[in-house]
Input
Amino acid sequence: MPKSNVNKRRINVIALIVIILVVYLVGSFIYYLAALPIKNIYIKGNYYLSDAEIIETSGIKNYPPLLKISRGKIKKKLKRNNYINDVKVRKKLNGTIIITVSESKPLFYNRSTNKIVLLNKKEVENNIDERIPSLINIVPSDLYDSLVGAFNKVDYNIILQISEIEYYPDIINDKIIDPERFQLRMIDGNSVYINPVNIKKLNQYFDLYDKVPDGMKGIFYLDSNNGNVMFKKYGSKVVSEVVQGEE
Output
């Protein structure tokens, strides 16, 4: 037998062995991934929802195989929860799954419905222990939606300074001047008149109050469209202008 034919057979055998090994390794790796259960679950970004609630809703509390987990299905399930605005899901080959959620914060407690209203306009059961503002009366439905949407323009630390929200239309001599006005009672003892159009002025609240002499208590008028901010001390008939800061 010629030597070249022997070498050719030897090369073919080696190539076949290499192919078999590659197929075996790839198959073993695929089998490993298919059988690999979730080993670690990390939840990030949650505050109002517990890790256990998120894992339960995701459908992975029994630590199923990683390849059987659909990131899209997890997102879809979690977004059904009113608190959750967005979800990101990462899977790692070491059996780790990382779920990062973006929650909507509580805006106020609606006394009329006994529900907590979130900044995304959804309502949840009244199960929050921390202090948040209370809406104490009924608001026309269209104005209600406008108010909730407008609060998204307000710094959340300012929202938490509000004790009560009352629908308080501006009426003079039986004539409605501003049908969209609200009165906010602040936890520091002051009050604020505001409407959805001018609600961004609330972001200046701390700066405005610092400009009031001697820390006196009273009413801030932030509902004007002319850019002026007025202040009236409780018990006084005098209304004075407060210099605004930068918006």
Remarks:
- The chain has a mean pLDDT of 88.
- The first helix runs from residue 3 to 35.
- Helices lie at 3-35, 51-58, 71-78, 141-150, 156-159, 205-210.
